[in-house]
Design brief:
The protein has 242 residues and is of the alpha/beta class. The chain is 28% helix and 29% strand. The protein contains 7 helices and 11 strands. The chain is globular, with a radius of gyration of 17 Å. Bound molecules: S-adenosylmethionine (SAM).
Length: 242
């Protein structure tokens, strides 16, 4: 554990999640749920050269599955018809593929060119898909019906989070939805100063202009994709913009 914390404290964070987090593996009886054991991640120590960090994302992209996230499926089930979605931090596009399959138009954004390349290789040409290599901090989201941010927003630097969140909320049309994940303040990576973590009350406050449709707090000790032990504290959210 001590070793794990030392790693976290020095983290230049590139996280890698394993396959899907299946809600059926959660005991949804209180605000603290037993988490999906398949959610996994790795850290890249601060000081790693960028190419190393990128290769760590590559390892994540190789290791992560292709099933859509349950937060996305939950959100999609609540729409009467498809619209325009932004997939923020889309990775290789497991959620984008599902959105397109269900008739949505998608703007897929990720800071890693490799992620977008892989997504394009999967989809090919499709008029309903726009891709963008860019950072949350720098992009302007189009007016949309859904912002999907699966396991991605915690990688926003804390100083920029508020502005990024404001942009996200403002992009959502009334009746539109956010779905995705935030990391809690007891997450094992919380000492890292280049990622965003939220206490439960802070996380709830972010949704003051939403109706919360799902807000599952999951806390557990498990492992990263590369087998590192990690304490996870994660909010799984689906929320409707008022
Ligand atoms: C853990 S992956 C999640 C990918 C995918 N959404 C999924 O559910 O598997 C996080 C993604 O966020 C991207 N990312 C990290 N920081 C970012 C930033 N500041 N702006 C845009 N994308 C970022 C990474 O490149 C990575 O593809």
């Amino acid at each position: 554990m001590a070793q794990s914390h030392k790693l976290v404290a020095n983290a230049h964070t590139v996280a890698m999640y394993g396959r899907r987090c299946d809600d059926s593996q959660l005991v949804a009886q209180s605000h603290k749920l037993r988490a999906c054991p398949l959610v996994t991640a790795v850290l890249v120590p601060r000081g790693s050269v960028l190419s190393t960090a990128m290769s760590e994302w590559t390892r994540y992209y190789d290791a992560s599955g292709s099933d859509p996230r349950t937060t996305l499926l939950d959100a999609l089930a609540r729409f009467a018809e498809p619209g325009l979605a932004v997939d923020l931090g889309c990775g290789t596009g497991r959620d984008t593929v599902e959105l397109l399959r269900r008739g949505w138009e998608v703007v897929a954004i990720d800071s890693e060119a490799e992620a977008v390349r892989r997504l394009r290789a999967t989809i090919g040409e499709d008029d309903r898909l726009q891709t963008q290599v860019g950072r949350y901090e720098d992009v302007t989201l189009p007016p949309c019906d859904l912002v999907n941010a699966s396991w991605s927003l915690p990688f926003c630097p804390p100083l920029q989070f508020e502005a990024v969140w404001r942009g996200l909320v403002n992009a959502l049309r009334p009746g539109g939805r956010f779905c995705g994940h935030l990391f809690g303040d007891r997450d094992g990576w919380a000492p890292a100063d280049d990622m965003s973590f939220h206490a439960r009350a802070e996380a709830e406050r972010l949704f003051h202009s939403f109706a919360l449709e799902r807000f599952d707090e999951v806390e557990e000790d498990s492992r990263t994709a590369l087998g590192e032990p990690k304490h996870w504290h994660v909010f799984h959210v689906v929320a409707r913009r008022r």
